Amino acid sequence: MTPDDIRARLIVPWKHGEFVDLRGITCDGPLDLRDCLLTGVDFTGAHFAGGIDARGARFDGISWFRDVTFDGPARFDHASFMNDGRFEGSRFNGAASFTGAEFRGIGRFDATRFEDGADFSGMVSYGNVSLQGIEARGTVSFHGSEWLGGLWCQDAHLPEGTDLSETQVHGRLWLRDARRGNAALETQDFGMSFGYTYL
């Protein structure tokens, strides 16, 4: 599908319970969704050969990017996910950026691979965020992020220099078998944690 075709299908008013089914599609160029108001969409298994630019976009319905491959930059800076944002099993081969993004539902990144860094600085989530089993290379930052619904990091593998400064975790912090470089990820690696930590 062309980027223009995809964009035209998504910039329609969202109705509860409805979504655009784009599972398994290949987008043949960079997809520009900057500052768009978007209906629900299921991109499970899709391939974005030229990446995606969703800076400032508002995803009103479901936002499923499960098992998606991004071969170009994936920019979700200051995007708002009004329902669940699901990225589990996806592969980011270019730089990934979620700076200042807001997740009103859950943010799920289980088994996601970041091959060229990831910037989550300043993100805010109201539901639980799961980083279970993620693998990341390059520069990774969560600086200043706030997780109001807790953070789940079972088996997460983050680079040694991952920035977790000035972060806040409200609720459960699950760190079993999570690592930053060769060291176990621990409560004191975060700026502040207000709930129970499970090691």
Write structural notes for this entry.
This protein is mostly beta strands and 199 residues long. The protein has one domain. Helix content is 4%, strand content 32%. The chain has one helix and 32 strands. A nine-stranded parallel beta sheet has the order 1-5-9-13-17-21-25-28-32, with no helix packed on it. The radius of gyration is 16 Å and the shape is globular. The termini are far apart. The mean pLDDT is 97.
Radius of gyration: 16 Å
Largest sheet, spatial ordering of strands? 1-5-9-13-17-21-25-28-32
- The number of helical segments is 1
Oligomeric state of the chains? single chain
The helical percent reads under 10%
Number of domains: 1
* Largest beta-sheet characterization: 9 strands, parallel
Protein traits:
8-stranded parallel β-sheet, 1 helix, 4% helix
Compile the SSE list and pairings:
Elements: H1 3-10, E1 20-21, E2 26-27, E3 31-32, E4 37-38, E5 41-42, E6 47-48, E7 52-53, E8 58-59, E9 63-64, E10 69-70, E11 74-75, E12 80-81, E13 85-86, E14 91-92, E15 96-97, E16 102-103, E17 107-108, E18 113-114, E19 118-119, E20 124-125, E21 129-130, E22 135-136, E23 140-141, E24 146-147, E25 151-152, E26 157-158, E27 168-169, E28 173-174, E29 179-180, E30 183-184, E31 192-193, E32 197-198
Parallel strand pairs: 1-5, 2-6, 3-7, 4-8, 5-9, 6-10, 7-11, 8-12, 9-13, 10-14, 11-15, 12-16, 13-17, 14-18, 15-19, 16-20, 17-21, 18-22, 19-23, 20-24, 21-25, 24-27, 25-28, 26-29, 27-31, 28-32
Antiparallel strand pairs: 29-30
